[in-house]
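for ur thesis appendix - Cation:dicarboxylase symporter family transporter. copy paste whatever u need, i formatted it the way the template wanted (i think)
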Amino acid sequence: MRVLTNLTFWVLIAIITAVLLGSWAPATAVKMEIIGKTFIDIIKLFIAPIIFLTIVLGIAGMDDLKKVGRIGVKSLLYFEIVSTVSLAAGVLMALLIQPGKIDKSTLQIQNASKYTSGAAKDFNWLEFFMNNFTLQVLLAAVVIGILLNYSRHRQKLIAVLGRLSKLVFTALKYVMYLAPLGAFGGMAYTVGKFGLHTLVPLAKLMGSVYLAMAIFVFLVLGAIMRYYKMSIWKFLQYIKEELLLVLGTSSSESALPSIMQKLEKMGCSKSVVGLVVPTGYSFNLDGTSIYLSMAVIFIAQLYDVHLSIGELLSIIGILMITSKGAAGVTGSGFIVLASTLTALHRIPVEGLAFLLGVDKFMSEARAITNIIGNGVATIVIAKSEKEFHPEAVPTDAA
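the 3d part is after this line
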């Protein structure tokens, strides 16, 4: 049977098994964390070489270096526009559904001091870069790719790097067979540690966040894809393995190497994939933006703080800057929330304590939306730069 050799099937089975284990034997499930963490750590080993090789080969193979700068500027502009739309969408959905209009005395309160203590710290771009290994690799690869473009040994070096790239992707292919174990470990730990019962008091918030992200993906990103004569449904079907892996591990990083490979196979040029995807993982966090804006409004509603139009616009403006620091570091989303609430001087920063128990269950939605957003961004930039050459992938609009 073909289904038994399908990786997606086994990842799904692993997630279901993990939820059952977490519900019935939480103590055992929590111990499964090491399996999920080990898988993500192995995947992280591939991130730097794949980003480096993809970018260097992409830039070294380009005849027009001006295109590199154009792709970079276009990408950042696209990220800023779509991120702002996602922030606004989060605020709008929170105002419409009002997830914070509940009795807070029924909610679990956890200690949020480790996040709120650093709340007043200003966002620092240099510190952000120094702590973001992906961006450091990206910059090094761009510089080396440009230098290689001018080298008289260009073709020989491209051939060597090309062979190395094939070896890395072949190794990744075999590591991905461990994906069901990674998904099992991540999901078992989450359910065992936090418990499905914690979802009940904040079911309205969770439902609102998942609904907002679904609307954003199918309406906003769907409309962008339709404009470029493509189908969001077919794209999601194409990357379903990556989406399930992200669902199980709660980490969009776990699928970064394979999503880059899939986008290349789909028809996006190596240079566009190499430049857009890693940059997007730091600057194009659509899911995180929606969650952060909804969380701020949720806490305001919880404390009956009425916000004016000006204050709502301030929230979007502050989050446009602070949300950039939410990339790739566990718990950083809470630090960003604490910084935003501190800057506003209107909403009690202690409200974060109500979110801690349920946050882990919403991280899946954030990570999935982030990876879809970066996939769409890569396709948009590739199409606009005429760097999209589809082969046999079913992505044309239905």
